[in-house]
Amino acid sequence: MLNSEIDTMSGKTTIKGNPSQYVKLNVGGCLHYTTIGTLTKHDTMLRAMFSGRMEVLSDSDGWILIDRCGKHFGTILNFLRDGSVTLPESTKDIVELLAEAKYYCIAELAESCNKALAKKERGELEPTCRVPLITSQKEEESLISSTTKPAIKLLINRHNNKYSYTTASDDNLLKNIELFDKLSLWYSNRVLFLKDVISTSEICCWVFYGHGKKVSEVCCTSIVYATDKKHTKVECPEARIYEETLNILLYENRNAPDQELMQATSTRGAVSGMSSYTSDEEEDRPGKMVIDEMMVFSKYIQWNLYNSLVLGEF
Length: 314
Hints:
Shape: elongated
Oligomer: single chain
Structural class: alpha/beta
Largest sheet: 6 strands, mixed
Helix content: 25-40%
Number of helices: 11
């Protein structure tokens, strides 16, 4: 049972009870429900308040009133429960949390806040995006199989070519790298991005993985003929790359993507097995290429609308 002695004139009470007993807290209008054990776990002012050593205010409904801002009190409780807590990102919020930690005499939390503020002042920020560079096939397999995220790999190696490049190829190589960098910044928290710069199998190729398996690829190189010479042509099919990125996001869940969703985001309806894009194949089918390009462009517009309306990233 929760023991309390209430002064009905002042609303003051002393709280003391079993650690498993719950109490209701009203912190600056924010309501919290926790146990006496949590509140008395560390040597803080809250232990004094809820071990009978200090009087606390309560209302007629039994809520214990604490005259502080309740914005960060949930973080305070989580620290008391676990002994550690993830600090807010913004300096303003860390300063506010520091003030609350000092008020409740939570020395360890106050020290963590001070260290985080000092780190920010020195400009020591954690990188928001990390892209591993593949050094071996074994490392690549290990990274892809160990992650719970879908994965996108860009294989880029200009020196794999044995012919001369077409005029626009170098610019398109750079466009592929720039697009990869943009996508990795936008979706690094949802997708594992990998870069392979030592492979000898391709010049420029995107590979998409879901649940540890290769789902599709977009090959950006082809061989073209000019007079009596062969040339290597590098392209940057942005619309198709956006499409495959949208498809791969369907693999964020543990279950396989819904087939209707896959079909809705695929311009070619290739929902089973792997899909790939090569310029040689398209050059052999000019009529189908025009239709496919129109469908890809339509999907590209849908992608932009999706990001601007739902994700707010464009």
